[in-house]
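Tokens help. Consider this.
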Amino acid sequence: MATITSIQNERAKYVRSLARRRNRQRADRFLVEGTRLVEEMVRAGVRPALVFYTEAWAATAAGQHLLPALERAEEGAWLVTEAVLVGCTDTETPQGVLAVVPRVPVSPHPGLVLILDRLRDPGNLGTILRSAEAAGTGLVILTPDTIDLYNSKVVRGAMGAHFRLAVVRLEWPGVREQVAGLAVWLATAARTAREVPYDAVDWRLPSAVIVGGEAAGAGVEAEALATGRVTIPMPGGAESLNAAMAATVILFEAARQMRTTVNP
């Protein structure tokens, strides 16, 4: 294949268009950038739609290892100049490879359901997804007011969780249907008689936990859905943890309890 040398090339323009959410939704595809995420894609057995890579990246050990798999891309693996790759990403120093990937749904499995409501920070969402995948969370539900799952910063922060973690975006009627019959806990920074410490909850029971946004927390729909409130005691002077830290603490406590049940 010829080298793509212009950002005005049709394929390059298509890749650039996926920076916009509506274009990702229309194409049902998203971008992964860098060696680590491309490795995770290949390891998950996902066939890319399109690949761009530079000559310098192809000469690396990782490039030589991954290229045979990348050449299976539906629309080809294309050699591009450094300038074209820079123009197709939103990172200052791209790592020499990117892939256009079809959305691949992952089936949920038994375990804690995590509901994320009104999260707006892509870094926080990416970190939470990474923690959820590591903790063995059964399903993650994004409410309508949460940032796009396929935002480039979310994808980078999740470090491959998109390929292994069951995540759905639902309107509130769908959320209520999904968690019917579960104990639904709302994570909050408040510390009153209403809140239960996170490590006093029996997460082995069929449960869901709601983590709200960074600024204003969860919305009224989430408040109405909750059957209980859970908090993380903080003996220090901080008033609260950010959403990603709070979610991680709770998810790994649930994982600890599950592991203790399986391996007493």
